[in-house]
Amino acid sequence: MKPGVRVCVPSAAVLGLFCRGCLSRSRSWPGRSFSSLPRQMSRWNSQDTCSPPSPQENVRVLITGGLGQLGVGLAQMLRKQYGRDNVILSDIKKPPPHVYANGPFVYADVLDYKHLRELIVNNRITWLVHYSALLSAVGEANVALARKINITGLHNVLDLALENCLRLFVPSTIGAFGPSSPRDPAPDLCVQRPRTIYGVSKVHGELMGEYLHHKYGLDFRCLRYPGVISVNTPPGGGTTDYAVQIFHDALSTGHHECYLRPDTRLPMMHISDCHRATVEFMQAPECQLSLRTYNIAAMSFTPEEVAQEIRKHLPHLKVTYNPDTVRQTIADSWPVRFDDTNARRDWGWAPAFGLEELVSDMLRSIRDKRTNEGLPVS
User: pLDDT tens for residues 96-114?
Assistant: First the structure.
């Protein structure tokens, strides 16, 4: 047991992840089929609460938006613990061959409620990880689509999780804060008021999940991710994407043009820490959780600081700065650092990577990847 972590005493009748404190809100509800009921007449209009699954029930995971930055790696980590066939990736795009080879993949559109329900029922899903979203900069370029995917898609997932008593994980973000939020550090609970559709949709998700947890007992869990830095997935339209691209540029051309000012400080995290935090949080007994949404932190740096660290390995790296108005405005409204005291206390969160370790690992991994693909290395 990690020092300082909250613990709870399990009930004699319940083994594994559930304990007496977690079960106090939940009571059995009359069995009935939702398939014959209009969607709006199901658990929303009932006084029933969501009972936890049987402790003997196997963990079966569905990941939406699985071909983005985070899904494939998370699936790999979960499959090591719960079995290859018990973790199903999904997306609306055709995956590369190695994704098919590594485990189950299905087509799933989060806007198609009926098909999502079929997937959950037919595959006996118990955990749902909802990664489908349009990120900050892309969302500002297409607000209508971002609203549809980030809010309507979320509502579908919330309804299905409630209907089927799933453990639901929905990530949030540094983008859930705004210019009136405390920035250094940003605590778990404070004024948020984001000014992007991405941030607004994430705050909406945090609050809806918390509401359904308190009213109906939905096992909703949410982590506010910092900027996540990884090798295998290309940048996907986020404001922190420079912190991925700079490594690729350093090893390919030796020159990176940054769309943020050199002094723009933002919270960041290595992807392996992000995956581990997600799994540890999903596995934490519910009675250890004092919140439904937690900040998690690892490091905080500026473009100039990460460039200087890279130059310890690649002294020739040249960085020029050409701030993009949209992304710079977004970054200036976000926290400089996260306060993750509650995550460390409640379920033992602790990062493994600092800036030095992150830079060394990224350069080594990208160099190996480029070499294996027959690409030149600067």
Answer: 999 999 999 999 999 999 9
Q: What is the largest CA-CA distance in the chain?
A: 68
d(CA 341, CA 247): 30
248 phi, psi to nearest 5 deg: -65, -45
Which residues lie below 8 Å from residue 314, measured CB to CB, with a gap of 6+?
250, 251, 254, 363, 378
User: 225: which strand partners?
Assistant: 173
Share of the chain above pLDDT 90, in %: 78
Burial letters 143-166, b for 16+ CB under 10 A, else e: eeebbebbbebbebbbbbbbbbbb
Amino acid at 92: I
The predicted structure's pLDDT at residue 378: 77
Contact 259, 323 (CB under 8 A): yes
User: Does the pLDDT of residue 356 top 90, yes or no?
Assistant: yes
Cβ atoms of 172 and 159 closer than 8 Å: no
Residue from 293, 286, 274 nearest 343 by CA: 293
In sequence order, what are the residues at sequence separation of 6 or more whose Cβ sits closer than 8 angstroms to the Cβ of residue 100?
none
Q: Which two tokens stand for residue 19?
A: 């304990």
Summarised one tens digit per residue, pLDDT across range 214-233 is 999 999 999 999 999 999 87
Complete DSSP assignment for 267-322 = EEEEHHHHHHHHHHHHHS-GGG-S-SEEE---EEE-HHHHHHHHHTT-TT-EEEE-
Annotated catalytic residues are 198
Cis bond before residue 187 (omega within 30° of 0): no
Residue 137: what pLDDT?
84
Q: What is the average per-residue pLDDT within 201-207?
A: 98
Express each pLDDT in 326-346 by its tens digit.
999 999 999 999 999 999 999
Alpha-carbon distance of 286 to 233, in angstroms, equals: 32
Helices (H), 57-196: 71-82, 97-102, 113-122, 136-141, 143-147, 153-164
Please name the residue that has the structure tokens 């370029």: 141
Strands 266-270 and 299-301: antiparallel
Token duo for residue 98: 């190695």
